[in-house]
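CORE FACILITY INTAKE
Project code: CF-77B
Contact: R.S. (postdoc)
Sample description: multi-component assembly, two entities in total
Requested service: structural model of the whole complex
Turnaround: standard
Below are the sequence entries exactly as provided by the requester. Do not edit them.
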Amino acid sequence: SQTIHQWPATLVQPVGSPLSLECTVEGTSNPNLYWYRQAAGRGLQLLFYSVGIGQISSEVPQNLSASRPQDRQFILSSKKLLLSDSGFYLCAWSDTGYGIYEQYFGPGTRLTVT
Amino acid sequence: GIQVEQSPPDLILQEGANSTLRCNFSDSVNNLQWFHQNPWGQLINLFYIPSGTKQNGRLSATTVATERYSLLYISSSQTTDSGVYFCAVPAWRGSARQLTFGSGTQLTVLP
């Protein structure tokens, strides 16, 4: 069965420091991968998605970047964190292929920028 | 893009009560997902339901795609049902399908 991992689970970082969040998926090949952010409140905002190694699409302009160095690894980064980057970051995966797009989410990383 | 609205935004129930959560969407879709976000933040897949009705224990969901809504029923609610319930619908963006989420229903089940 497929499993999705995220780490770290929680992170407290000062303003201006770098960031690296990691997401890995097991049990599937060539998944679509997604990064979402959930700020205080409820809405989930799609940040990035990837349909293959090295292929990243950004949904909104921001202080963050994403990379996909391996098929089942997705990394969210920042060179200098802002206070507004605080939030709950969720990674998700789905199968590729037409009509197959049920998404499954990882446990999330709670980031607090101080 | 497609709009997704959920109601009610907040719901408080006594343990054992039943509830219905609603999800309206602004355009035709060929699928819909319901999620439960537990107090630890984990998003749990509940249903993947393009149309018709599905049941899983005390939970069931109905999607009427032609009328652009879906309903989630929770029967005999338990305190562990507390959390936020989201519906989400897909749309193509680039070469991948993306999910557009509603703003959620915060459910609190009191003992």
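Facility notes:
- Chain A touches chain B at residues 32, 34, 38, 42-44, 46, 49, 51, 57, 59, 88, 90, 94, 96, 99, 101-105, 107-108, 110 (CB under 8 Å).
- Chain A has no helices and eleven strands.
Invoice: internal transfer
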